[in-house]
Fold this protein.
Amino acid sequence: MTGRRRPGSDRVFIRRALIVITLVAVAFLLWQLRTLVLMLFGAVVVATIFRALADLIRKRTGVPDGVAIALSVLFVLGLIAGLVALFGAQVTAQVHTLTEALPAAWRSFEQQIQRMGFGEQLAGIIEGTRSGGGNTSSIGRLVMSIGGGIADTLIVVFGGVFLAAQPNFYRVGAIKLVPPGKRALVTEAMLDSERALRLWLRGQLAAMVVVGLLTGLGLWLIGVPSALALGLLAGLLEFIPFAGPVIASIPAILLALAVGPDLALWTILLYVGIQQVEGNLVQPLVQQYAVDLPPVVLLFSLLGFGMLFGALGIILAAPLTVVSYVLVKRLYVQEALGTRTPIPGEDRT
């Protein structure tokens, strides 16, 4: 009979429907927990740093893996403590001076804008940003946000330590979620992405140090206040592509503008010059030993992750792009499409 179903067709349909429903439910759950997922990725980034340093220690000294991990964690913490001991008081004093000077610098900026005839437009922008709460509530939200950020950072760091201590345990556990026939492929893809992430972090660390030193030294030479703190800020924000250098330049320009327009112009030229040196000299040298990402991919990834995940997505946009770029090339372009394509970092150690 034409209207009669084949035996077992209902069972197959029900099973497929359940699979689709399960996938949709998992996707919805991951979206609801997107902040937690990003924090987990941040822990992976921290673990990658510890593992890279531990591997270097193990190769040079021959100590067991657990000892190498402990030494790498102690080295990083000791380095941070040493920098705080050497420059902590000076940086703290400059940050305090910076926070006190910025309001006056902003008032000077407002006066300059009013003299140019754009005072009403600036007032409208400021009023729009203040809508939805007064100064007291804004300060309360800021304090809560800073406290939550510190707690999240500690969780990410401790999670990174645990992941670095037993990477194979967590990697094998994740691979067991994949069908047996694809486990070898997924293992290779994960190792490729880990290698690319290590290389990118190594190159980015070098760029951050160079930019921080050049910025601090340059601001000190031209006479901008709090040059050390501003150089540290520039080095840290170099981790965020495109947007980081722009954000880092704003406090320096405001402080320079409070001193005089000439100093503000020199400050702008300094930041532009440093970015030219970083883009045309430092990055090409670094990328010989690291991972080079297409600028367009990195730019739109920054915008996309920022729109999806907010500030945390912007901070982790670059390492997320590195991992996503490698996985797409390995699992989709090479495996699904059968097209040969180089994997970032595959010919580098």
